[in-house]
Structures are given as structure tokens and as C-alpha cells.
Specification:
Radius of gyration: 41 Å
Strand order of the largest sheet: 2-1-5-4-3
Number of strands: 12
Oligomer: single chain
Largest sheet: 5 strands, antiparallel
Structural class: alpha+beta
Length: about 425
């Protein structure tokens, strides 16, 4: 008895069409979720494979000029696919990566199924998994690489048919957009990581806060200050100053920073902070809602940056200042300091374990690098400080010349060695050119 087929009612067709539209809508939602959260790509691939009609699928990326592809996201098939197997059919399979954007291409479009079954790739890799065909669409292309999304057909699905092509054509544009969006998120994540690393490299404590003082980010130095709980701390996720008055001022500053530069001023505001042990710090608040600084404020709606550093006066040592001002070599500076602290040439030579002539050479170079006035002062002073007890041993037999030196340099002998070094630092060195 022949089976009689009855035409489907309009209502039944409409219901099926509505179900297809709902399935497509749900699938699109899953795909875009994967664009934002890469960990959801496997769920998206499972849904796409079911929608197109297959057993496995994945995202494949290949650089121009190479004969293998990487698979960042996949489901349902064994990896890795050995490069030497893929190379055997590369001349035909490369067509998957050369097609037009979003247009379905099947492996059986590029080579006959008979030729495919004769390849080692099919025998050793595809057939053991029951895979018989592959349909793909290009979803991203640059000058250096191409990405495709593909679905493997199982023997129970048969070779790629028109239904599979239609389904792939419907979903490919959304996969493409998801890939592009995902790349943007990856780029921003890398940019943010670089930005955070840069902030962590600052010596000053740095905090990003919202208008309510909620702590968005703190760099390494900033976290160290918070851990000390001396001048600043984090209470309930808010940045709080230990000094109540400073804390109230910060609250006002953070709230005002949300209104931009006009309210707070483009230079921000500086606040003094004092620790329990009397250590002094300076906090500088800067609005992030205007100009180029807006890029820093993008991070979780931060509206102000607070920089905190310890207040200190960087003063170079007097010997270091002399060495820099007169362009002295390290050895010349050591000789100069030794003459001040130890005595004359013989004593310095003995202390350094070198010949007297070596020390005299360095002293001569010291005089050459000084201005004429400084040369006269230092010459008289160096002679005057050469162990006064020598003259006491000589007593009345002290030479007339040395008495004259002491007389001329009496005002210098009243100067301590440290004071003399400081005065040398204040004398302008002779110009070399």
C-alpha cells in the first residue's frame, strides 16, 4: 500500500520557521558571548556544529606562505593534525583559506571524494574518526594571515549539501564579527597590561579612584603604602587618609575631579601627609576626565589619579659636588680628600701604597683643573694643613718661608677641612673652552 503524503499546513510551516529563527537568535547570542569571554568558544562551536549539521568544528588560522594551520578553538576532533599529512593535500585544501569572506566552501568542492579517500590524511586521521567532509567560511583576513571557521561532516551526516551551505552562510557573518570583536578585546587587554606594568614601575604610590573614592587600581608602590596603614589605607574598598582633615579634603577632590579640569584645575591639587613617626609625604591629585588623560580614566570609570611620594630633599654630597664641578677623576677626588683628611704628599702616598711622585702628579692635575683664585687658596691651605706638629717639633728653627705661608694663610687655617671642601664646591671651575 502506497503511503500518501499530505501537504503541510501554513501554520505548521510558520511554526518551523519561527523555531529556526529562535534557534538562530540563540546561537548568535552564544557566539557574541564567546567574543567577550574566550572561555565560551567551545560552547559556541558545539552550537554552530549542531546548527550547520556536523560532528566537529573549530577556528583555524594560517599565516601566508606556510603549509599548516593553528587551531585556537575547537570541538569534537583529534589534534594535532600532523603537518606532513596536511601537506599531501595542501594544494587543494588551501582553497579553504583563499575563498571569499563568509562564503561556504567544502573540501569536496576542491577535490573529489575519491581523491580525498586515497590520501594518507583521510586514511590515518579522518577515517578513524568517521569524518568524510569539511565545510568552511573565511571569517578574517589580513595581509599576513587568514582565519576560517569550519565544520567537519561525519559519515552519518553525509557529504556537504545545500542545507549545510545555507546554514553556514547564515551564521558566518556573526562568527566573523565575533572574531573581530575578540581581537579588539585581546588588543585592549594587552594594552591594559602594558599600562598597568608601566604604572607599577613608578617609584611613587599611584591610585586610580572613582568620584566616591572607591579604589580602582593601585600600583606596587601604592599597595606598599596601603599595607603600612600609616598615611593611607583601604577601608571597604575606599581610599582613606589617616588624618581626618586630609581625608575630608580627598573626598572633596575625588568628587570634584569627576567634573573635569575646570572644577579642579588641570594641575590638580597637592596635599601634605604626615606619618605616625613624623615622616612627611606629598599627595598630588589629578583629574582623568579631560584631554589625553581620559585614556587612563577609561579603566573602570576612574575619574582621578592620586600620586603619593615621600617628601625629601635630594642633596649631593660635597665631595661628589666637587668631583662633578671640577671634572675630577675618581682617583683625583680620592687624592684630594686624602690630602684634606690625612696630610701631605708623603702621608697620602704611604696610605695609598704608591710612590710620592704618583701623588704629586695627581695634585698637579688637581691644580690645573681649578680656577686661578681657587688654585691660590687651595695651594696656601694645603701647605698650611700639613701637620702643624711638624712645626712644633721644629720650634724656633721653623723656616722663614713656612712662617710666611702660615701668616698668609691664617684666615684659611681657621677653616676646617669640611668647610674648605664646601668653599671649593662654590668656586666656579676654569672654563675649558
Amino acid at each position: 500500500m502506497n503511503r500518501v503524503s499530505h501537504p503541510r499546513s501554513v501554520s505548521e510551516s510558520s511554526k518551523d520557521n519561527s523555531d529556526d529563527q529562535q534557534q538562530l537568535s540563540d546561537l548568535i547570542s552564544v557566539i557574541y558571548d564567546a567574543a567577550i569571554d574566550p572561555s565560551r568558544w567551545e560552547d559556541a562551536i558545539v552550537s554552530i556544529v549542531q546548527f550547520v549539521g556536523g560532528a566537529a568544528g573549530g577556528l583555524f588560522c594560517k599565516d601566508v606562505g606556510v603549509q599548516h594551520a593553528t587551531v585556537p578553538h575547537r570541538f569534537g576532533f583529534d589534534v594535532p593534525l600532523r603537518v606532513e599529512l596536511f601537506r599531501q593535500i595542501y594544494s587543494s585544501a588551501e582553497g579553504h583559506f583563499l575563498g571569499d569572506l563568509e562564503q561556504p566552501i567544502a573540501t569536496t568542492d576542491l577535490m573529489s571524494f575519491a581523491a580525498l579517500t586515497q590520501s594518507e590524511l583521510y586514511r590515518q586521521w579522518a577515517e578513524p574518526q568517521g569524518l568524510v567532509d569539511f565545510v568552511s567560511a573565511v571569517v578574517d583576513r589580513t595581509t599576513v594571515s587568514t582565519a576560517i571557521f569550519g565544520v567537519f561532516r561525519h559519515r552519518r551526516n553525509g557529504l556537504v549539501d545545500e542545507h549545510a551551505r545555507r546554514q553556514m552562510r547564515l551564521i558566518a557573518p556573526h562568527i566573523r564579527r565575533a572574531v573581530v570583536i575578540g581581537k579588539m578585546f585581546e588588543f585592549k587587554a594587552a594594552e591594559l597590561a602594558t599600562f598597568v606594568d608601566t604604572l607599577d614601575g613608578l617609584g611613587a604610590g599611584m591610585y586610580l579612584v572613582d568620584p566616591g573614592g572607591r579604589l580602582i587600581h593601585a600600583n606596587t608602590a601604592g599597595n606598599a603604602i596601603l599595607d603600612a596603614r600609616d598615611i593611607l589605607s583601604s577601608v571597604g574598598g575606599r581610599l582613606v587618609a589617616s588624618d581626618p582633615q586630609v581625608d575630608r579634603t580627598l573626598r572633596d577632590v575625588f568628587a570634584t575631579a569627576g567634573q573635569g579640569d575646570a572644577a579642579l584645575g588641570i594641575r590638580g591639587i597637592a596635599l601634605p601627609l604626615t606619618g605616625r613617626e613624623g615622616d612627611r609625604y606629598v599627595a598630588h591629585a589629578l583629574p582623568l576626565t579631560s584631554g589625553a588623560r581620559r585614556r587612563a580614566g577609561i579603566v573602570y570609570t576612574a575619574t582621578a589619579a592620586l600620586f603619593v611620594r615621600k617628601a625629601s630633599l635630594a642633596v649631593a654630597s660635597i665631595p661628589g659636588a666637587i668631583g662633578s664641578a671640577f671634572k675630577l677623576t675618581p682617583t683625583e677626588l680620592r687624592v684630594l680628600l686624602a690630602i684634606v683628611e690625612v696630610g701631605g704628599v708623603p702621608e697620602v702616598a704611604m696610605a695609598f701604597g704608591v710612590a710620592d711622585s704618583t701623588v704629586r702628579t695627581h695634585v698637579s692635575r688637581l691644580f690645573e683643573k681649578q680656577a686661578p683664585r681657587a688654585r691660590r687658596i687651595s695651594s696656601s691651605w694645603l701647605q698650611a694643613i700639613r701637620r702643624p706638629w711638624r712645626d712644633r717639633r721644629e720650634g724656633a728653627h721653623c723656616s722663614t718661608q713656612k712662617q710666611q705661608i702660615f701668616a698668609r694663610s691664617s684666615h684659611i687655617r681657621r677653616t676646617t677641612p669640611k668647610q674648605w671642601l664646601f668653599r671649593m664646591a662654590c668656586v666656579r671651575p676654569a672654563c675649558s673652552g
